[in-house]
């Protein structure tokens, strides 16, 4: 079920991701590691509505940033505040 496009849902999803990242890193698995990042990002992006997934990708492409966990968290926070 995709994450709804409202402030509360986007903020909650960002908090969930941050908790996941912190737990994984405490257990010695960096989710931003080059080997793990593509799998983690595909799982995280699969929870977004298709339109939001596309919008995130376009935004990263437009500003010349990589599609990664920190940038996804930043984007979710920005979108939640709109």
Can you describe this structure?
This protein is mainly alpha-helical. The protein contains 4 helices and no strands. The relative contact order is 0.20.
Give the arrangement of secondary structure elements.
Blueprint lengths: L6 H20 L10 H10 L3 H14 L5 H13 L1
Mean pLDDT: 89
How many helical elements?
4
Inertia-based shape: globular
- The residue fraction in helices comes out at 55-70%
Number of β-strand runs: 0
Give a short account of the largest sheet.
Answer: none
Descriptive tags:
82 residues, 0% strand, mainly alpha, 4 helices
Structure at a glance:
This protein is mainly α and about 80 residues long. It has helices at about 5-25, 35-45, 50-65, 70-80.
């Amino acid at each position: 079920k995709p994450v709804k496009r409202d402030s509360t849902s986007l903020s909650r999803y960002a908090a969930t991701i941050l908790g996941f990242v912190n737990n994984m890193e405490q257990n010695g698995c960096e989710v931003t590691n080059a080997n793990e990042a593509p799998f983690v990002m595909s799982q995280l992006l699969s929870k977004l509505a298709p339109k939001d997934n596309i919008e995130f990708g376009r935004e990263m492409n437009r500003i010349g940033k990589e599609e990664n966990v920190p940038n996804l968290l930043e984007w979710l926070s920005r979108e939640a505040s709109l």
